[in-house]
Amino acid sequence: MVVLRESLSDIKKEFSEGFIEKIINFSRIIGYSVEIDAELKLEFNPDRQDLFSFYSINRAIECFYEGHKYDTIHIIQSNIEFKVLSSVRKIRPFVFGFMAHGKPIGLKLKSLISYQERIHTGLGKNRAKVAVGIHNLDAIVPPILYKAENMDTKTFETYDAQVNGTARKILAEHPKGQEYSKLIPSGVNAVFIEDSEDTVLSMPPVINGRRTVLSGGTENFFIDITGTDFIGVRNASLLLIYEMVVLGYSIEFPVINGYASGVLREIRNYINRDIDLNKNTIKNVLGIQLSDKTIYEALCKMGYSAEEGPNHFKVIVPGNRIDVMGPVDIIEDIGKAIDFSKLLETPLKLTTIGEGIKKVSKLEKVRDVMISMGFNEVMNFVVTSKTFYDDENYKSGFDVLNPKSLDFSVIRDRLYPGMLNFLSINRRRPLPQRIFEIGEVVENGVQRTKLCVMYESSDASYSHAKSALDTLITKIFTESYKVSAENIPGIIPGRGGRIEASNIKGIIGEVSPNLIEKFQLKNPVSFFEIYL
C-alpha cells in the first residue's frame, strides 16, 4: 500500500474549499481509504501511481466533478544536449532526462520530493530498478553528460554538504552512500551525470551533488531518470513529466545523443497514445447498453480524451496512466465513472442443466445473514501455529513435519484461535470489531466446516454472541436450541457453554482472560463456533 499524508493546515492553504469533501467522495470512485485527524491520510493500492500526490488527485477531481477537460501535453524541443556515453551500459544502462520551466516552486517542492521518493520505493524497487535526480537547471552549464568514471578520482560535494571528496569516500561515509552503495556493481567505475564544466550533478542511484541543490525559489528544473529496467525508466519518466505539468510547468526535451535514444522514442510513443474502444466490447464487459453520450462523458470524467466513430471511440490515454494496458482497463474506468453500485443485478443465463451444491448454497445464506448483521468476513490459514493450542486439547492430530516456520506447523481443529490472532493484528482499529469466518477444520482426523462469529468491544459479553446466534438460527436453521452449562477451555467458567440442537452443535461464551492476555488484546471478546 502507498500512503499520502499532509497536515490539514497545509491542505487548506494549497487547495480550494471543499477539497477534503471531494477527496472523500472520490475515494468511493477510485478505491482508496481516507483518514482525517490532524492530518489528511490516504492509503492507495499501488496501481494508480499517477495519483500519488495531492496535486495530481486534485487534477483528477477537477476532471471528475468540475468538467475540466484533458489537455494534450505539448513537448517543446530544446537545444540543450544530453549526451549518453556507451560506458554506462554495464553499470546502469537506461536513462532519460527532461527540463521543466515555470514559476518558483515554493511549497510544492515538498510534494515533488515526496513523489520522487514514492517512485523510488515503488516502481524503482528502492532505487534498484529506477532512481530519479531533480536539479536546479539554472546552475547547470550544458551540455549534460551521462558516463562512467573512476570512483577513486571523481570528486564532488554531496547536496547537503556532509561529505566532500571522492565518490568512494562518499559511498563509505555518507548515510545515503552506505545505504545504496550495494546498488553499484563492484569495480572501479560508477555512473555520473555531469555538465560541461565536469561538475557532478548526481551519482545515480545514490546521491545528488551540491551545485544543483533545490530550494523554494527554483523555477527551472532538470530531471534525470536512470535505471536497470527499460520499462521502469520509461514509466517513471512519464509519471514525472505529467506531475510537473500538474504542478504548472512546461516541458522541454533535450537533444539526446547516444545510448538513450530508444527510451526517448518509447516515451514519445506513450505520450497521448490512442486506443480504439469498440462499443460492443463496452456492452459485453459491463453487461449493459450505454448511450454514446454517457460513454463520452464517463471517459472525460476519468481524464481521457475521446473521438467518436461509427462503432468505436478513439480514446487518447494520458502518458501517466501507465496502468492502462488495453481496452478493458478503460472500460473499467467507464464503470467507475457511472458507479458500479448503481448497475442493476441480472441473473446469469446458464446453458447447462446443473445446479449449485446444496452445502455451498447453505454457506452462502449463512454468509449473507452475518453480513446483514454488520459482521465482516475474514479468512485465516488452515495450516496455522502450534502455539495457538498451548495448554489446550489439540484435536487435529496433523503436524507438519519439519516446517519452515512455526507459524505454519499444524492443521487447525477450530477457528477461534485464528480469529483472536486476527483481532490482535488489528488491535489498533476502532471498536467494536465484528468478524466471522466460515472455514475448514480437521477434528479427530475428520474434515468439517465450521462457522465462528466473534465480537470485541469494551462491553463485549455473552449476550452479544447469543443475540447473533439467535438471529442466525431464526433465519437459517428455524429450530430451537439450548446452551448447556459446561466448563470449556478458552471460555470463562459460568460465562458460556455447549450449543445443542438436532442440527446444530458448537460452543458459545466469553473468551477467558488468559487467552485475552495471550493474544495481547485489551478488550473483552465473546464468540460462538458451530458446525455447518
UniProtKB/TrEMBL annotation:
UniProt domain B5: residue ranges: 270-345
Name of protein: phenylalanine--tRNA ligase
Catalytic EC class: ligase
GO CC terms: phenylalanine-tRNA ligase complex
Family (UniProt): Belongs to the phenylalanyl-tRNA synthetase beta subunit family. Type 2 subfamily.
Main localization, broad class: cytoplasm
Originating species: Oxyplasma meridianum
Key words, A-Z: Aminoacyl-tRNA synthetase, ATP-binding, Cytoplasm, Ligase, Magnesium, Metal-binding, Nucleotide-binding, Protein biosynthesis
SMART domains referenced in this protein's UniProt entry, alphabetically: B3_4 (SM00873), B5 (SM00874)
E.C. no: 6.1.1.20
GO MF term list: ATP binding; magnesium ion binding; phenylalanine-tRNA ligase activity; RNA binding
Cofactor(s) recorded in Swiss-Prot or TrEMBL: Mg(2+)
